[in-house]
Amino acid sequence: MADYLPPRELWPNRIYTLPEFAAYPDRFNPTEELLEKHVVAGRGDRVAILSEDQRITYAQLLGQANKFGNALHELGIREGDRVLLRTPTIPPAIVANFAVLKLGAVIAPISPLFSRTEIAHVANDAEAVAIVVHAALLAEVEAARENFKTLRHIIVVGGELPELKRKGYSLYSELLQASGATLAPVRRSRNDLAILLYTSGTTGRPKGTAHLLEETLIVPDTFGKYGWRVSENDVIGGSAPLAFGAGYSTFATIPMRFGAAASLIAKFEPDKMFETIQKHRITVLSLAPTAYRKMLQLPNADKKYDLSSLRVCTGGGESLTAATYHAWKERFGVEIFEGLGTTEMMYVFVSNVVNMRARPGAFGQVKAAMRRQARSGTSLLAGRPARSTGATPTSSAMRSPRTAGTASETSFTPTKTVTSGSSPARMTSSRVRPTASGPRRSR
After folding, report:
1. Structural domain total, the chain
2. Domain range for residue 88?
C-alpha cells in the first residue's frame, strides 16, 4: 500500500545539531531501542508502566508487546501497514503501540472523541488495515464499519467477550494469550514513517501528520533530556490522550528512552489525578492548563494529598495564565513551566522548562536542537522568551521562514522539522496522491 507522502524534494529540511542525533543507526526499531535494550542490559525488572494498582516491568511490557505483535502478524499485518488505536490511556494501548512498531507497521492513535464520520475518514485516509479499540469506545467504530474501505480487523480490548465474538471481532485478551513471547524486530530506515497523528478536525476534516522513526528518539533526546532532565528514577504522568503528540511522547517514548516509568490515567478527574500523583509518586507532571485549574478548585487538596514527589510541572495546549501559575505555586509550592507544541512538531519545542525559570505569561525558550526566528528583514533573535498571548497556541503560530515577512510574525524553525510553504510542514496521506511516477512508499 502506498503512503502517498510528498516527493522527497518537498520534505522539510532536517538539520541535526546534537551529537545524540548522529549516534542513531540508519536502520532501527523503536521497540527494540525503547524496551528491549533495557531488558538485554539487565534492567528488565524496572517498572515501565504504573496504572491504578498495576506495576508492569520492562520485561513484562516487552513480552506482552511481542505476544501481541505475533498475533497481529498472524492476522496478516506487515511492515508499513497502518493500525489505528482508539483506547483510553491504559496499558493495552502501550502494548499495542510497541507491538505495531516492532512489526515495522505504522501506529495511528485516534481521538476517543472522533465521531463515526471522522473514524471512517481517518481509516480510509490512512488506508488502515486494523483498529485496536476499547469496548467503551466501540459504538462509533461499529457505526462507521460499513464505510471502511481497507480495514479488515477490529480488535477489542475489554467488554463482554461472548457478545464481541458473536459479532466477529478479535479479542485482545485472547490474542495476547495465544501467541509466543519472542518476536524479531523489523528494522527500518530512520526516515521511514512510524506514527500518524491526526489533527482534531476543528477547521475541517482531521488531517494526518506523519512522524518518522527517528522522532521516537529525537523527542526524548531533546525535550526529555534537556527539558525535563529525565533519569531512570523518574515517574512521568499526565492526562493527555495518546492521540495527541503531548500524550504519545509523554507515555510512549520519553520515559522508555531513560528507563523511567509512565504513570497512566484512563480518564482525568481532579481528585483522581491527585490520588495518582500521590500513589505513583509522580515526579514529572504534564497537564493542560484547564486541568490545573480544575485541580485548584478542589478544597483542601494541599492538605489531603502528598505531592512532595513532584519536581517538575509543565503545561501546554492553551494559555496557562499568570493567575493559574501563581495560584498553583502558592498552594502547592511547585512552579508550572509553560510550553508550546503542535501535532505537526510531535511535541513541545518552546518551554520555560528549558532553563528552569518560569515566567508567568511567557512560553519560555526554545529547547535544545531548535532555533527561534523573529522575522524582521534577515535578523535572527535566538533564545528570547516567546510571549503567551492568552489565545490557544496552535500551529498557526508557526510560519514559514520563506513567507513570514513582517516584524509581527514569528516563525519557530525547528532543526527537527523545518516548516515548508505557508503552513507547518505536514506530511499526510491526504495531501498528495499518486502521480505518473507513482507514490512514495514508506518501506
Report:
1. 2
2. 26-31+42-211
Q: Classify residue 153 by its DSSP letter.
A: E
The per-residue DSSP string of 348-416 comes to: EEEEGGGTT---TTEEEEEPTTEEEEE-STT----SPPEEP-SSPP-GGG---TTT--STT-EEEEESS
Among 355, 358, 369, 347, which Cα is nearest to 222's?
Answer: 369
Q: Alpha-carbon distance 428 to 426, whole Å?
A: 6
Cα(345)–Cα(343) distance, integer angstroms: 5
Instruction: Tell me how many degrees the CA angle 344-107-136 measures, rounded to the nearest 5.
Output: 105
Same domain for 294 and 409, yes or no, is yes
CA distance to 5, 80, 266, 310, 319, per residue, from 292 (Å): 38, 39, 17, 14, 12
What pLDDT shows up at residue 401? 25
Q: What's the rounded Cα separation, in Å, for the pair 350 and 393?
A: 11
Residue 263 sits in the same domain as residue 229: yes
> Mean pLDDT, to the nearest integer, of 405-434?
32
Half-sphere exposure of 55 (CA within 13 A, CB side): 9
CATH number at residue 116: 3.40.50.980
Question: In 265-367, at which residue ranges do the beta strands (DSSP E only) sit?
Answer: 284-287, 312-315, 336-341, 348-351, 362-366
Cell of 49: 508502566
Distance of CA 117 to the CA centre of its chain: 23
| pLDDT greater than 60 at residue 85 | yes
- Counting Cβ atoms within 10 Å, is residue 177 exposed (0-12), middle (13-18) or buried (19+)? exposed
* Cβ contacts of 218 within 8 Å, gap of 6 or more: 21, 369, 416
Q: Say if CB 141 and CB 154 are below 8 A apart.
A: yes
What pTM does this model have? Answer: 0.83
pLDDT at 421: 28
CB–CB of 339/385 below 8 Å?
no
Asked if residue 144 belongs to a domain, the reply is: yes
Distance CA 181, CA 199 (A): 35
Q: Please check whether residue 360 is in contact with residue 347, taking contact to mean a CB–CB distance below 8 angstroms.
A: no
Q: Is residue 1 part of a domain?
A: no
Q: What is the mean pLDDT of the chain?
A: 82
| Single residue among 176, 211, 246 that ends a domain in this structure | 211
- Do 72 and 161 belong together in one domain? yes
139 and 157 housed in the same domain: yes
Q: What is the pLDDT of residues 372-412, one digit of tens each?
A: 444 433 322 233 333 443 333 322 222 222 222 222 222 32
